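[audit] Reproducing an earlier prediction to check determinism. Same input, same settings, fresh worker. If the tokens differ from the archived copy the diff job will pick it up downstream; this log only records the rerun itself.
[audit] input (311 residues):
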Amino acid sequence: MSWFDRLRRGLGKTRDTLAADVRDRDRGWEMDWEDLEFALIGADVGAKLAAEVVEETRRERERGTRFHDALEQALLDQLEPSHMRQKLRRVGFDLDVSRQVVELAGRVVMVVGVNGVGKTTTIAKLARYYQGHGRSVMFAAADTFRAAATAQLEVWGERLGVPTVTGPDGGDPGAVAFDGAQARKAREIDLLFVDTAGRLHTKHNLMEELKKVRRVIGRADKGEPAEVWLVLDAVTGQNGLEQARRFHEAVGLTGVIVTKLDGTGKGGILLPVVRELELPIKFVGVGEASEDLQPYDAATFVRALLPAPAP
């Protein structure tokens, strides 16, 4: 199955909330703009952005554009606004394998997020992705508060042939991150992914701990971590937006990975992440398999999100 087909399947529940509106309007039925707005809000686009999408769609419809095409363009304008286009399209050409690869600003990626979003599994999938593009990878298991998290990352490291830096259970997460950053430089490994504890975004002291982890990485390797990625569970909906806002305020996110799009009708959460926080979506996940995590592309996402136009 192609990536587009997997993405389309994963977004099925979200698409179902929009299907009747889109197809009926394409057939020339009388437009109820309020129904469309409610459908978008139900998909977790958010009230403000839903109103903007409806208004832009209405304007294009009045110009004679087919409803499906007008809505598709309105959604794309939200997911890739012109002033953010260069920031959102950080994809370069990897000459080693003659394929596109999601660029990184540096060598260390600090991965954050609340408990249960699948950070550790996502890190393993990212490692496999970059290995497939000829990059060497290592892990730092800085979630020292859960022995299971360290053990899980070590298992993934063994499976993928990725060295893993660990510390004692309950030890200092910053020390593990520091050691990992130093080890990456010493071994001349291309990328280090730092796994962090599932911080509750409402707990001030835990956010302070994340800030510390980021600082000590910079001491071990100046300018790093150049990337701080939040793993966001699509099932959490608008609460996920608040999580992203708090993490961004605390550690300065550079990107978001949205997972579990296959289990929710809330796929619209990507819009407020991009528009309100102006953060690029780096990858999206639609399943458990490693190939179910792929680089995000706004146009592909919108085409997978909307039902096929009516004949």
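[audit] rerun output stored. Observation attached for the diff report: Strands lie at 91-94, 99-102, 108-112, 137-141, 164-165, 191-195, 227-233, 255-259, 281-285, 293-295.
[audit] end
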